[in-house]
Amino acid sequence: MLLTLTTTHRPATDLGHLLVKHPDRVQSFDLPAGTAHVLYPEADEARCTAALLVEVDPLKLGGGRGRRQATTPDSFTLGQYVNDRPYAASSLLSSALAKVFRSALRGESRDRPELAAAAIPLEVRVPVLRCRGGAELAVRVFAPLGWTVAATPIPLDEAYPEWGDSRYVDLTLTGTLRLADALNHLYVLLPVLDDAKHYWVAPDEVDKLLRAGAGWLADHPERALITRRYLAHRRALAGEAMARLAELRLADEPSADDSIEGGPSTGDGVESGPPAEAPRASLAVRRREAVLAALRDSGASRVLDLGCGGGALLTALVADRRFTEVVGTDVSSQALALAGRRLRLDRLPERQRDRIRLWPSALTYRDDRLRGYDAAVLMEVVEHLDPPRLPALEDAVFGHARPGTVVVTTPNVEYNVRYEGLGAGRFRHADHRFEWTRAEFAAWVDRVAAVHGYTATIGGVGDEDPELGCPTQLAVLSRTDTDIRKEETTR
Question: φ, ψ for residue 245 (rounded to 5)?
Fold first, then answer.
C-alpha cells in the first residue's frame, strides 16, 4: 500500500525536516503486520514528495501472537491470509502513519518549528484506497476540512466495464493546511473509509480519536459516521465519544448559525447516493479562521482569549507557534476545566505547557493580570452580557487591560431571517441577551474606539447576503504605535 505527500512550499525539501526523514535516504520501520518504508521520489527546492510504502506480511497479520481481530474484510478463516490488506490502503496505513510520523502528527519540529505551525500547500495521493461507500463518501468526509477532493472509482476490470466499479478509489487531496492537521485527518479518516479495523478496538481508542480530531471533529457534519466507523461500530464506545464531542460543542456555546451554515449531514452510513454539493465548513470554523487571520495580521505574539469557553479557539492558537503566550479566561470554572482537557495540558511537554495559561476572570471587572498583552479576542462574548453591563466590559478590556489589538465577533441579527425555524424576535442562542444590527454594531465599535484611543475596521464572516450582510460581524480595533510607545514610557 502506498501514500505520497507532496509540497511546493519553497524550499520544498523542508518537508524532510517536518517529517524528520531525510530526503537522501530510504528508511525502514518494523510494524506489527509488516514493514514501512519512507523514500523521496523527488526532492528539490520547487517540489518535494515523500512516499510511505507499507509491505504487509499476511502471516503476521493473520496469526501473530494470539491477537484478537476486531474486524476483517472476510469472515472465513483463510480470509486472514488471503485478502486485500497487502495491496490497498486501509486502517493498516493509518497505524503506519502513527508510528513513522509520530512527531509530525503532534505538530512538532525541532528544526522548523515556525513551518510546522504554518499552513503550506500539500497534495496527498493514495492510489488504491479501500472505500466502503464509494467516492462520494470520500468527498463528504474530507471536503469539510478544507481539502479539494478528487476520488476516482477503480473499475473491477477495465476490460469489462459492464462489471462496474470496485470498492476501491484513487484518492487525491489538495489544499493549504498545517502538515500536522493533514496527517491527523488521514490518521482518523483512512480507517473510517476502510471500515474494517485490523485490531481489537479498546476503550482507549476514544481518547485517540478525540486527540487526533481536536479542533475539527466536533464540528464535522459527518462526525456521527466518523465516530461510529473509527470505533468499529462498538456502540458503547461510539456513544461515549459522541457525548464527549457534544460536551465540547456545548462548552463552545454553538449558535443556530453554526449547524445550519455547515450544511446537512446524513448522520448515518447511508451511502447510496452523493449529496447535492460538498458540505461547507461550519460558521464556527470559519469564524475561528477569520479571528486567527486578524491576529496574524496584527503581528501579535501574546494573546488573550477572553470568555474562552471550552477552548476551541485556544486549541487553534496553541497550534500556531507564532503565539508565544496564550491566555484563556472565563467566569465559568467548568468551562476552564473543559478547555484544559481539550488542550490535553496534562500530556503536553513542559515547554508547550508553559505557553498556556487558564485564568478565572470576569470581563466586567478590572484584572491587572490582563494588562500588557499584544492582542485580545472577544469571540461571541459581548452578546451574553446584559446591555447595562457593557460599559463595565468596555472599561475592563479597552480602558484597563488595553491590549494592542482587540478582535470582536458577534451575530448579525438581520441575518437571522435566513435561518429556518428561527422566528422573529428569537436569538441564535438561548443565553444571548441581545443581538445587534450592522448599524448598531458599527455605532458601538466607533464609540468604543473613539473613547479609548483605538482605530477600527469592520467586516463580516460567512456567506454574504446582498441585502442582509454576513451572518457574523467582525471588528478589529487597534491602538496606534504612538499610543503604545507613549504608555510604555509612562509605566
Answer: -65, -40
